Amino acid sequence: MIKSVRCREDRIHIWDFPNNTTILITDSFLQRLIRKRKQQFRSWRSLNTQLYISTPFSFFKSYLKPSYKEFRPLPILLSLCKIFNIGLQDLQKNILAYHTKKSRIIITNPNLPIVVTPLFSMIVAHIMADGCLIKFNNKKTVYFNYTQYNKQLRKLFIAKVEKVFGNIKYPEVYYNDGIRVYLPEVISLVMMKYYGIGCEGFLENKAKIPDKTLNANKDNLLTTLIAFIIDEGNVDSGQIVIGLHNKSLIEQLSEICNKLQYKNTISSRKPKGYVLYILKEGMQKFWRDYSLLKKKFPEICMGYKENSLRNNILRMNKTWKSKGKNHTKNKIIGLLNGRPRTIKELSELLTISRQGTKFHLKQLKTAGIISTRSTAKYGGDVYYLDKYYKLNESKKGQSRQLGVTKVKIMKILNKTPNTTLELAKKLNMGRNTVYRLLKNYASNRKIICIGNRSATTHPTKIWSLKNIE
Q1: CATH architecture of 404-465
Q2: 338, 351 Cβ separation under 8 angstroms
Q3: Which 8-state DSSP code applies to residue 174?
Q4: Which residue intervals define the domain HTH arsR-type in the entry (predicted)?
Q5: 146 in Cβ contact with 180 (< 8 Å)
Q6: Cβ neighbours around 251 below 10 Å, total
Q7: Number of C-alpha atoms within 13 angstroms, CB side, residue 227?
Q8: pLDDT per residue over 407-451, tens digit each?
Q9: Class of domain 327-385
Q10: Core-most of 19, 95, 304, 318, by most CB within 10 Å?
Q11: How far is the C-alpha of 122 from the C-alpha of 300, rounded, in Å?
């Protein structure tokens, strides 16, 4: 078990940035540098000889002119601060924007120093899950590319980056309609340096979650897992499923689940690949942890997958009611009478699992009432109503999901003996119904009656879980 402790986050300062970073400074700080030069050096050339890095004099002299409107090289300004005995923190406070030398993407209103929050870890996890590192053979330039088909999730990715680094000024806002988001080179290099990841560390079959993340606190582990669920996971039938080709990465995600106490299992799938299942109990705990962390970091929102997760949780916790024979099928017919729909849409409208929806659709298709004629945008059949026909419904009753009540009773009795009345209250069921179930379990030698206890009106039996030879 990993405890959620309040600890000081790491900070990345401007002097930790790559050497090809260029910055825009305030006019007041520039004037301060010029005054220092006049006080300590007779000429620009004499100052140039004292720099810690070799810079052609013609360029150097231009960098400190007020008329120079371009971004200035970070290494030169760091060197000047050391020569003039100006604190680097002062320089950091007077930075208005930055980027790498040839980049067209600028970070304005920067957050400096950069605080390594759980969002920082989540950004790198997104790149590993559904992104890549772009590097040209004939150039030194490298930068992250993130691919996301859902517009809301694309914008949420940008929101995470801006929350950590500052506003990102793109030449054009192309990501509203496109599926890719390109991060500035300077951000990509800063994150790679912090985690010690090389270019190969983002390849599909070689990517690994950094040790700094695996050894971090609960919130960092959770945001990393959330990123993989957003990009590579789906939620259905009481579990979260994440599929990858990278076995080591799947095992690391399982390790994270174990640290967070999310019950999980791994299996392989054909032709190649591996699947992590976060099981029912783990999914419910994940939902609680996610809901709490989202209050602190709204940017971690899972978009439409959050809705799927919420619906699954509601289905698991609701009182199960049998609608009667053909009731659900008639509801499907009514929904399809309005317009064609996918299994996902029908499942959400009916508040039942996709597997349950498929079961009813298959029977309606066999009966010739519905058919599939096209495929949805991102895969999956679209169902059409061929003829409107209302099926005969049987009387409605109330029941519970097969096996759920038994599991609940066994879990309760595994902790401590309970009376029939106590169990009825905990299960929110009628006393007589619970008593009949308990007698049935006792006859099958699953539980045992260990005595009686006086109740308000009638005596009630005490039940215990016991292995009977």
Answers
A1: Orthogonal Bundle (1.10)
A2: no
A3: G
A4: 328-371
A5: yes
A6: 15
A7: 27
A8: 888 889 988 899 988 888 888 887 888 888 888 888 888 888 888
A9: mainly alpha
A10: 95
A11: 8
